[in-house]
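Researcher: We plan to redesign the surface later, but first we want a full-length starting point. Tokens attached.
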């Protein structure tokens, strides 16, 4: 039996989901990739934490242990913020590994340069999980762009905000209680201010805009607004009037560049995003031939996000070397 060697950077909500999905979907991956995916090491920050379900000898807090794995093919990255993740991904590319990341903060700033470095080394960068969780928005835009020109993108890109707004409307939750529940469910960022003040949606819009239009919008005039100014009273008043608050992002190609907006908006029943409740995200892409294509799916959470990362790995079919299983599990044990 041969294997494809992978390493995991981060073992929080998303990292655990990727590890679990590789075990539970091993047969599908084997059929697609021609060999089993073997997780050879898991990088964490705090090596002393209890990690049920993962063999102790796979854990390390030293990135050099990852770099020293022979024939490593895929590095899944699910840690938080730009550094040290960016340095780790650059070193992984230099080692000849394909990388798959969920880290939108990093990717919004450094996605282009990472992709250029990867292409020079003949490897790929999967970033489906950076935007809209399990909903395949990146893949859809790439497919559309093969022939279409994209003129506009509009959507709900933060699962936490949509979940909070839904709980406040449907179950009279306070903002604080709804945020706490979204943290418990693993939807919110390590610093949830990124979610509720609109910065997470901003990073995702920057990623989509760069992909769809080849440039990022300038938001210095319109600014970025989250959901924190909306009160329970506002939401209940809107409900009585048959309206719903949504945190909406949009980006449109104009003759002066990309015009964008990120703010809460009141929608009526006739709007296509009116019914997108809970942790769902939805993105409507307007394309020259296809018209408007709308993708909807879980925008955050362990398994939907892992699904996006595993799909990126599955897309490497035909590009991966398989090797005999190793002794790697004992590489850095002790
Ligand atoms: N949660 C979600 O639904 C989604 C999250 N994302 C993105 O995925 C990434 C991970 O998110 P999530 O799993 O929720 O985050 P968590 O906070 O749950 O987990 C982060 C993991 O990264 C590890 N880590 C943090 N800093 C370092 C470091 N310097 N060196 C090594 N390991 C480190 C932590 O280690 P330790 O366990 O030791 O603390 C932890 O295992 C983020 O970039 C996030 O924006 C993307 C889509 C959806
Ligand atoms: N915190 C993010 C997680 C997914 O990207 C969100 O709530 O959308």
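Model: Full-length starting sequence:
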């Amino acid at each position: 039996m041969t294997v494809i060697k992978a390493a995991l950077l981060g073992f929080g909500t998303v990292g655990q989901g990727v590890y679990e999905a590789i075990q539970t979907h091993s047969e599908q991956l084997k059929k697609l990739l021609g060999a089993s995916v073997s997780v050879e090491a898991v990088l964490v920050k705090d090596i002393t934490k209890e990690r049920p379900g993962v063999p102790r000898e796979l854990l390390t807090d030293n990135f050099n242990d990852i770099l020293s794995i022979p024939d490593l093919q895929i590095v899944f990255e699910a840690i938080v913020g730009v550094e040290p993740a960016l340095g780790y991904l650059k070193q992984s590319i230099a080692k000849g590994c394909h990388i798959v990341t969920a880290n939108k903060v990093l990717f919004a700033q450094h996605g282009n340069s990472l992709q250029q470095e990867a292409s020079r080394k003949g490897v790929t960068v999967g970033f489906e999980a950076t935007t809209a969780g399990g909903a395949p928005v990146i893949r859809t835009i790439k497919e559309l762009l093969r022939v279409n020109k994209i003129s506009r993108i509009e959507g709900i890109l933060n699962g936490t905000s949509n979940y909070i707004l839904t709980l406040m409307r449907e179950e009279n939750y306070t903002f604080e209680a709804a945020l706490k529940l979204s943290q418990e469910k693993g939807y919110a960022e390590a610093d949830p201010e990124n979610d509720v003040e609109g910065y997470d949606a901003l990073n995702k819009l920057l990623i989509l805009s760069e992909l769809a239009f080849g440039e990022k919008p300038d938001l210095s005039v319109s600014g970025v607004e989250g959901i924190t100014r909306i009160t329970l009273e506002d939401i209940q008043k809107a409900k009585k009037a048959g309206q719903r608050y949504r945190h909406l992002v949009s980006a449109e190609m104009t003759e002066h560049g990309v015009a964008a907006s990120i703010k809460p908006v009141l929608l009526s029943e006739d709007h296509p995003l009116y019914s997108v409740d809970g942790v769902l995200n939805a993105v409507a892409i307007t394309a020259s031939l296809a018209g408007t294509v709308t993708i909807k799916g879980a925008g955050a959470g362990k398994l939907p996000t892992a699904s996006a990362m595993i799909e990126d790995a599955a897309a490497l079919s035909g590009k991966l070397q398989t090797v005999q299983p190793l002794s790697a599990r004992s590489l850095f044990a002790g």
